[in-house]
Amino acid sequence: MSTSAQIGVTGLAVMGRNLARNFARNGYTVAVHNRTVARTKALVEEFGGEGDFISAETAEEFVAALERPRRLVIMVKAGGPTDAVIEEFAPLLEPGDMIIDGGNAHFADTRRREKALREQGIHFVGMGVSGGEEGALHGPSIMPGGPKESYDSLGPMLEKISAKAAKDGAPCVTHVGPDGAGHFVKMVHNGIEYADMQLIGEAYQLLRDVAGYSPAEIADIFRTWNQGRLDSYLIEITAEVLSHVDAATGRPFVDVVVDQAEQKGTGRWTVQIALDLGVPVSGIAEAVFARSLSGHATLRAASRGLTGPEAAPLGKEEAAAFADQVEQALYASKIVSYTQGFHEITAGSEEYGWDIDLGKVASIWRGGCIIRAAFLDRIRAAYDTRADLPSLLSDETFAREIADAQDDWRDVVIAAVRQGVPTPGFSAALAYYDALRAERLPAALTQGQRDFFGAHTYRRVDREGAFHTLWGGDRSEVSA
Ligand code: 6PG
User: Fold this and answer.
1) What residues make up the catalytic site (predicted)?
2) Which end of the chain, C or N, has fewer beta carbons within 10 A?
3) pLDDT score for 2
């Protein structure tokens, strides 16, 4: 048994335990520690045969087991618990050692922690880890931020345990950028995840309520879609969830689940930060609000009797054609959601000076993470071809695909509106697309209104400068 560990993991709930096992399975000696010692013992007893573990009962033992520079991964709840673990371990570390936070921390907390620890000579790495329990064990997508020199030492280990992209075997990990960059990108990953899941949910509801298909039939449709350009983890698992039958009742599983979606908060953060950055992530926002609305059971019950259109399910042939249209709408809306997510990463990178490489972000999302999808290969290629691409919609391939999809996309939104099926994601994505390409927007009227009631001034299309109209007087215009 080695007397020193190349990496240590403290916090051995499922994610931490599986990450520790992943390091051990890949040949590293792993020091393991948990506040509840029994959990540490259970890990080594159950999985000790998978590799070299050094079990530590105290913080001091844990630190002593680590080779220099020490690499200490904390896998505890974001917020206060993470601060508490840092406060416990930092005094035991020496300059050059590193603390790696693998939780879903808010990037602002990571920036604060990185600055405070840097002043003590300790490296702090905020590391997004995506892929859930299975990913942590078999290969997650990993989004480490923090000092570049930390990655020089930590990166090779993360590359070994990460998922590998199916197309070229590349490790799904990169040094995202300094301080909070890694947790920021993980946050946006989760925002896109919410949008993806909302769009899939809307496609399901349309196939159910408008096309009249059963969950099992819709599962088959998703399996077919998963063979094509929608090939992705979320589409794959949707087919599994929809084909599942509840053992207790024999009913489709999806019909026995309470239709109130919960959220731990990373999708919400994505929207809050986008509002601060002035980035329209309407698809992600609608996904967050759809989850919130679903949770207002009393409000929904009080609204149940509100009048809506008569349901008019389609005939068999029309239903099949409609399903093809829904695929087009889903794909086009998905492109918009990723476009918005990458826009937010660009804005965050500019705001915080992170110089994030969008092609690399797309590349490491090709495997291991929840939003892993074949079309991320195409997003990577788009950014590798043109790093300063203003928007994914400016990429000719994506622009062409959206052009080909838009008639069906519009038909689907029209059908949803006519049949009273809520599709905030599809509709927001289409509205975003139409707003982006519009020659003129009603924002001109907004500026006029703001100047009328608040003298907030406006700019003109034909002259430089800011102006105000004397609405209460002769309505002449003055330079502001
Ligand atoms: C991942 C997931 C994960 C997420 C949980 C719960 O990338 O592995 O995104 O980080 O936190 O799945 O997410 P919500 O409760 O916010 O849906």
Assistant:
1) 186 (proton acceptor), 193 (proton donor)
2) N
3) 52
